[in-house]
Specification:
Elements: E1 33-39, H1 46-65, E2 69-71, E3 74-76, E4 78-84, H2 89-101, E5 106-109, H3 113-129, E6 136-139, E7 156-158, H4 163-174, E8 182-188, H5 191-207, E9 212-219, H6 228-237, E10 241-244, H7 249-261, E11 266-269, H8 277-281, E12 289-293, H9 302-314, H10 325-341, H11 346-353, E13 357-360, E14 363-368, E15 373-375, E16 378-385, E17 400-408, H12 410-413
Parallel strand pairs: 1-4, 1-5, 5-6, 6-7, 8-9, 8-10, 10-11, 11-12
Antiparallel strand pairs: 2-3, 12-16, 13-14, 14-15, 16-17
Pfam family, one: Peripla_BP_6
Signal peptide: 1-26
Keywords: Signal
Length: 425
């Protein structure tokens, strides 16, 4: 086996001999259904990969604890294998080939729209070339809008709100924030980061034409270790707010540098609600860091609270508590589609995923068949001290959590698509 292939099964008791060669016999009808997570488990964004792994492990465990997926031939468990992409596109493509050779027919990935775009292209070509081994791609967080617009694919399903939808939710808050008259646009220099800033400019022009853009800057993805020069420019610009789609260490290091520089403006973020960001900015973030998400731990429902508490029981370390509701919905949707299809055939399962509707822990959503963009509620939260009204739970033991200040229904969050879906004959 290649040294580049890093695979760890999280299905307890699964035999190491489950390797299925590319030209082997038909799969055992009782064998686990393999799900391959292609994600950065090392490198600059390893913390994001580990966060994803915890969430998917928990979701798979829940399906298996209730007996697995019920198929006509009998129940089958799910098996999650992880493949380290190291955050690099070429490594992700190598991992995809390894996963297919190992017998995986469900691919999950999300932490990088550039990687997701490459996987979509590779899967389209593979499925056309090798119909006996077709695979489906479930995307939990690659949110470049192009992936369900111009580059939409029958084999790709996105379960996160895309960047334009997230930006629209943030703008519902920013449009009413009359203390903000100038903003600095800041992002990672790749397809997603560029899309965020492009949409920020468009929506600001439509909703807050009075707001001046005093900075508009992109930086290398995952390569900047010292954001102090950027923070100094942001502070010197006089911007009253920063709009950023930064994630992982690129966000944490940015907010740390801004804190150290004495910047006291607001941060309108896509991912400011975890992975070290609240602890990094500390007291300076109270009332100033705004984040959009599909779900937040302080959503005020009993079902949501029970969901969060059960995750904390499974993963008790405070630093492990970045919970993704949508990743639970990914696995629930997959299990439902498999059962309705009555088989693991990729075409049959994909057709069921096109119309899937899932409800879990008070969260509900459905897949839009036109472009395979999942439609679900969105929430916007503001950072506050734990214990203040609306903040029962903090983030990663930081003492700070997010109070929900705006909720959008699926209909309010929905946006049009330009997808021209090509489906198999």
């Amino acid at each position: 086996m290649s040294q580049q292939r890093i695979r760890r099964s999280i299905l307890k008791g699964a035999a190491a001999s489950l390797f299925i060669p590319a030209f082997g016999h038909a799969q055992d009808p009782q064998a686990p259904i393999r799900i391959a997570m292609v994600e950065a488990m090392s490198g600059a964004f390893a913390n994001t990969g580990e966060s994803v792994l915890r969430n998917l492990v928990w979701a798979v465990e829940r399906v298996n604890q209730r007996g697995g997926v019920r198929l006509p031939q009998g129940p089958r468990k799910l098996q999650l294998d992880r493949y380290d992409s190291k955050g690099q596109t070429d490594e992700a493509l190598s991992a995809l080939r390894a996963a297919i050779d190992d017998g995986a027919r469900i691919i999950v990935q999300g932490n990088s729209s550039a990687v997701a775009a490459a996987l979509i292209d590779a899967i389209d070509k593979h499925n056309a070339r090798d119909p006996q081994r077709r695979v489906i791609f479930l995307n939990y967080s690659a949110v470049d809008p192009i992936l369900t617009n111009e580059r939409c694919s029958f084999w790709h399903f996105r379960f996160d709100a895309h960047a334009d939808m997230r930006m629209a939710a943030l703008m519902q808050v920013l449009s009413g924030d009359r203390d903000v008259h100038s903003v600095y646009l800041f992002g990672q220099d790749y397809s997603f980061g560029q899309a965020v800033l492009r949409e920020a400019r468009r929506q600001l022009g439509a909703q807050r034409p009075d707001v001046r853009i005093v900075g508009d800057e992109l930086h290398p993805l995952g390569r900047v270790k010292d954001f102090a020069p950027y923070a100094a420019k942001i502070k010197a610009s006089g911007a009253q707010a920063v709009i950023t789609g930064n994630w992982g260490n690129d966000l944490t290091l940015l907010v740390k540098a801004a804190r150290d520089a004495g910047y006291d403006g607001k941060f309108y973020t896509f991912y400011g609600n975890a992975l070290g960001a609240p602890a990094a900015i500390g007291e300076a973030g109270i009332g100033r860091v705004i984040a959009v998400a599909d779900w937040l731990p302080n959503l005020p429902t009993r079902e949501s609270e029970a969901f969060y508490r059960s995750f904390r029981e499974r993963f008790p370390r405070p630093q492990d508590d970045y919970v993704h509701m949508r990743m639970q919905l990914v696995i629930e949707a997959l299990a439902q589609a498999l059962e309705k299809a009555g088989s693991t055939d990729a075409v049959a399962v994909a057709r069921q995923l096109e119309s899937v509707r899932v409800a879990f822990a008070s969260q509900q959503g459905h897949m839009r068949a036109a472009d395979h963009q999942f439609q679900q509620p969105l929430v916007v939260g503001v950072m506050e001290r734990q214990g203040t009204p609306g903040v029962k739970f903090d983030v990663e033991g930081s003492g700070y959590g997010f109070r929900v200040i705006r909720t959008l229904s699926p209909a309010e969050a929905e946006m049009p698509t330009s997808c021209k879906m090509i489906r198999p004959g």
